[in-house]
Amino acid sequence: MENLNTSNSSCIAPRKTKSVMLDLLIALAPATVAAIVLFGLKAAIIIAVCVGTALVSEFVFNILAKKEQTVGDLTAVVTGLLLALNLSTNVTIWHCLVGSVFAIVIVKCAFGGLGKNFVNPAVAAKVMLLIAFTGISPIAGESAPSTLDMLICNRTGSLGDACVAALLVGGIYLIIRKVISWETPVVYLGGAFLLSLAFGADISGALALTLGGTIVIGAVFMATDPVTSPKKWYGKIVFALCCALITVLISLYGTAAEAVPFAILLMNILCPYIDLIGAKKNEEVAK
Fold this sequence. Notes:
Shape: globular
Number of domains: 1
Helix content: 55-70%
Strand order of the largest sheet: 1-2
Number of helices: 12
């Protein structure tokens, strides 16, 4: 089994991929249960279709490409679950099928499989769905949910937004387990809150932006992807701040239905340059 450096940082040792994926699934379990409880059968179907399609896509691709089977490492399960939790109940089964196949076959497998993709597969699939289809994002109600509703009982957003508190608990678990480091989620969420205030939002607006719109699941579970995020702690801070800035600008001034997936996707693409700048600085210090 291939080792996966869970943090891209020297402070956390590499671990077996399957072990990391199990921790991610455990961390996502409370949010998954909350989504099914609050959104009902439709949520369960979306999750099942996304996860099942992701597994089948990877299995079939490996057969056709005559590659070693990798479905047992659970990465396809995590990708499918993350995609599902980023979708709303407005999606159809067709959207789930297309998104999952795109995430696994196009973004992951076509670039060489685990560790070779240059963007997060679930993020890329969500962006593709937003561009290709209309009406898949949550429809805003007449009034925004309260902060308490966003934390524990939100039926107005994506599946992963149903219980933000569950996502935060999952994030704390991953930090304790040293699957992720704290810099990215803390700086992303804190930066988004402060930047939204700086750009003119009031406290309630800043809280709504920070706790809604899939930003928490993005900051905790997708911006921390070890393959597509910076290796060093200072790179993680730059990466997270840029994600926060792009998220706030799109949310306040842009026309995109959702800001978070576009912000993370763009920073995934720029991640190698952040690492390159850090490497050059280290070389200069060494000299």
